[in-house]
Specification:
Layout lengths: L7 H5 L1 H4 L24 H20 L8 H15 L12 E3 L2 E3 L1 H12 L23 H10 L31 H8 L5 H12 L5 H4 L11 H21 L8 H22 L6 H7 L9 H23 L4 H12 L10 H22 L6 H11 L5 H13 L4 H11 L12
Helix pairs in contact: 3-5, 8-14, 8-15, 10-11, 10-12, 10-17, 11-13, 11-14, 11-18, 12-17, 14-15
């Protein structure tokens, strides 16, 4: 599959690429997601900026030769007076001038610059319509950035600053990944000359709610899991699949009905991918016990049927593990699975299809760059995806979740999780 390169300006600016329309692909949205690190206080930056601004003015007023520039200073003073009468278009505070295309205060200017330069992503704990004014602007960074963009502040106007001294050149983003594997992050950063792909994969990696290592916390040292351990790990895997999707910046921009339709269709495939990624031990006896099939002597046929399904599950997990898939590849594979047009009733099929194609392009380029000695790797990874559907979602429910939710369909719980933004108070979820 040949990739058609975006304009030169997009290669220099990964955030601009997210809005670029690839030939044959629709433009990729770049809505916010949860940040992996807590940004610095905007108020601190605002206050610091005001102090620096005042100090510079004082220094200029006492500098020899300032008298000679009195005419220019007078004009500048009049301009500042006019700016003080103009409100910040974002929060309504006093504007300090025109920044990135609009009149804004120092606080909103600094917030916007930091968000764009560091490619930070946020989430809203409300309904994504929080009030943004002088007194509430720091309460929701998601809605603040959304309003900055809505009011016309331009990402492309933010010049790329130098890399902080604590960060090596070429690292993903401008902050360390708190979630995901560092090795995969470093590998994704190695897509030299393909910064938009690096940025795209980094968004998928940062969307992971838990690092892979945390899945292993509920596993026993001897690799034998009891019923409670199985249910705990299964709850983690399912919840992390939903959280990961919600944290992808362009998933929340889809219609809620489309979000629900996609996850209700593919949750079991994402579950299998997560199970493989965390090397979930699959032992027949505890799985049958978890499904409640060991207690009834009349359930012999059901036991045989479930053992066959467990075997299929085990095969899919083992085949993925045999490929030694890294975290970046898992994230791309999950994105390919998630953005499927097979779901019924989708309102924006073309956009969802473009997201799937972009995920495939990112995975292909990543495999070609990071595994040059494995020319068939990309094809092998993609060929694993259709077989994921051979694992019955009903069997996964019976094996792993009947003790947690009884007869409530998982699809119903996923819908409620998306609409409420919570993981409910399931057993085992408090330890997450």
């Amino acid at each position: 599959m040949a990739l058609v390169g975006p304009p030169a300006s997009a290669w220099r600016d990964p955030s601009a690429m997210l809005g670029h329309t690839h030939p044959g692909l629709a433009g990729l949205g770049h809505g916010p997601v949860t940040p992996c690190v807590t940004p610095p206080s905007t108020e601190d930056i605002t206050n610091l900026g005001s102090v620096v601004h005042s100090t510079r003015e004082l220094q200029q007023s006492t500098t020899p030769g300032s008298q000679a520039n009195s005419t220019q200073s007078g004009g500048s003073s009049q301009s500042n007076d006019r700016n003080q009468n103009i409100e910040c278009i974002v929060c309504g505070d006093k504007s300090s001038g025109k920044h990135y295309g609009q009149f804004t205060c120092e606080g909103c200017k600094s917030f916007f610059k930091r968000s764009v330069r560091r490619n930070l992503t946020y989430s809203c704990r409300g309904n994504r319509n929080c009030p943004i004014d002088q007194h509430h602007r720091n309460q929701c960074q998601y809605c603040r950035l959304k309003k900055c963009l809505k009011m016309g502040m331009r990402r492309e106007a933010v010049q790329r600053g130098r890399v902080p001294p604590t960060q090596a050149p070429g690292q993903l983003g401008q902050f360390s990944l708190a979630n995901g594997d560092a090795a995969a992050a470093a590998a994704a950063a190695g897509l030299n000359g393909h910064s938009y792909l690096s940025s795209y994969i980094s968004l998928l990696l940062r969307a992971e709610p838990y690092p892979t290592a945390r899945y292993g916390q509920c596993m026993q040292p001897n690799n034998i899991m009891g019923i409670d351990n199985i249910c705990e790990l299964a709850a983690r895997l399912l919840f992390s699949a939903v959280e990961w999707a919600r944290n992808i910046p362009f998933f929340p921009d889809l219609q809620v009905t489309d979000q629900v339709a996609l996850l209700r269709l593919v949750w079991s495939e994402l579950f299998v991918l997560n199970a493989s990624q965390c090397s979930m031990p699959l032992h027949v006896a505890p799985l049958l016990a978890a499904a409640g099939l060991h207690a009834s002597p009349m359930a012999a046929d059901r036991v045989v049927a479930f053992m066959d399904h467990i075997r299929i599950f085990q095969e899919q997990v083992e085949k993925l593990k045999a490929l030694h898939v890294d975290s970046a590849e898992y994230s791309c594979l999950k994105a390919v699975v998630l953005f499927t047009t097979d779901a019924c009733g989708l309102s924006d099929v073309a956009h969802i299809e473009s997201l799937q194609e972009k995920s495939q392009c990112a995975l292909e380029e990543y495999c070609r760059t990071q595994y040059p000695n494995q020319p068939t790797r990309f094809g092998k990874l993609l060929l694993r995806l259709p077989s994921l559907r051979t694992v019955s979602s009903q069997v996964i429910e019976q094996l792993f979740f009947v003790r947690l939710v009884g007869k409530t369909p998982i699809e119903t719980l996923i819908r409620d999780m998306l609409l409420s933004g919570s993981s409910f108070n399931w057993p085992y979820m408090s330890s997450m």
